[in-house]
Design a protein that fits this description.
The complex is a heterodimer of chains A (about 140) and B (about 120).
Chain A (H helix, E strand, L loop, with lengths): L1 E8 L5 H15 L3 H22 L7 E9 L2 E8 L14 H6 L6 H9 L2 E6 L5 E8 L9
Antiparallel strand pairs in A: 1-2, 2-3, 3-5, 4-5
Chain B lengths: L3 E8 L2 E10 L4 H13 L4 E12 L1 H16 L3 E5 L3 H9 L7 E3 L2 H12 L1
Parallel strand pairs in B: 2-3, 3-4, 4-5
Antiparallel strand pairs in B: 1-2
The chains are: A alpha+beta (about 140), B alpha/beta (about 120).
């Protein structure tokens, strides 16, 4: 398994750096352009939720981003030490209800779940929270050579 | 330097918002300000031209979601035009073509507003 790690400050202006980094890594792993940019969007959503909800827009905290590339699975682990993130409180809205009653919020988690194969939240004993986003390289998402 | 730009034009009393670049949690407040100004000015016929929009995340979508009901209550609409396939795919993924009037080009959106008035 190969890994890549980097850190950002909890600032929304860092999101473009995250997207560029993830897109390039996903392309290098073998994903086509569309899949790579979808993965970058999912990671953007994870980081945005952490900045807004876990760190409540305080700009001086750290977010760790780790890429774990193993066989055909591309996994991004986003770690923070902010407010504990209970995904049950952020369940993705029923889309029919959402359209009937448009409102802000709740879309980020839905986007993550729709774009990735698997989204998992873990709370570690040292009060760190991890968001795991996984996507498998398949014949549909593979870059043509 | 911001990687996002928003500009407003007016055609036949319809406000056209041109979006350019990357609309994410960092840049969405710029679009929010524009919508606030339009609401304060009671401008409810709005076309959002996405021709130069490269990227949208939930923060950008949230701005449209926040205003669509108020706009429609005032007999207006937010019509979205000229989306690239990449941006349209995000709307489509979420089922938003059911919620928003998305047209191929700006002229069609303007025509819908003006023909509705007659």
């Amino acid at each position: 398994m190969s890994t890549l790690n980097f850190k950002i400050k909890s600032q929304t202006e860092k999101l473009s750096i995250v997207r560029d980094f993830i897109t390039e890594a996903a392309c290098n792993f073998g994903f086509d352009d569309e899949s790579a940019s979808n993965i970058a969007l999912a990671v953007d959503e994870a980081c945005t939720n952490i900045i807004k909800h876990a760190y409540e827009n305080q700009p001086d905290h750290e977010i760790d981003i780790s890429l774990r590339m193993n066989n055909q699975v591309f996994e991004i682990v986003v770690t923070h030490q902010g407010k504990l993130f209970d995904p049950r409180l952020f369940k993705s809205p029923d889309i029919k209800d959402y359209i009937a009653h448009p409102r802000r919020g709740g879309l980020g988690i839905r986007i993550m779940k729709l774009l990735m194969d698997d989204v998992e939240y873990k709370i570690l004993p040292d009060k760190k929270c991890e968001v795991h986003l996984r996507k498998k390289l398949t014949s549909e998402t593979l870059r043509s050579r | 330097m911001s990687n996002f730009k928003v500009e407003i034009r007016e055609i036949q009393d319809i406000k056209i918002i041109d979006l350019r670049g990357y609309l994410d949690a960092h840049t969405a407040p710029e679009l929010e300000k524009v919508f606030q100004t339009l609401m304060e000015g009671k401008k409810f016929n709005i076309v959002v031209n996405c021709k130069e929009l490269n990227y949208i995340s939930s923060a950008g979508l949230g701005v449209f979601m926040a205003y669509i009901e108020d706009v429609r209550k005032n007999n207006g609409d937010i019509k979205l035009t000229n989306m690239s396939p990449k941006v349209y795919n995000i709307f489509d993924l979420l089922g938003f073509p059911l919620l928003y009037d998305i047209t191929k080009d700006e002229a069609e959106a303007i025509r819908k507003f003006t023909s509705f008035k007659k």
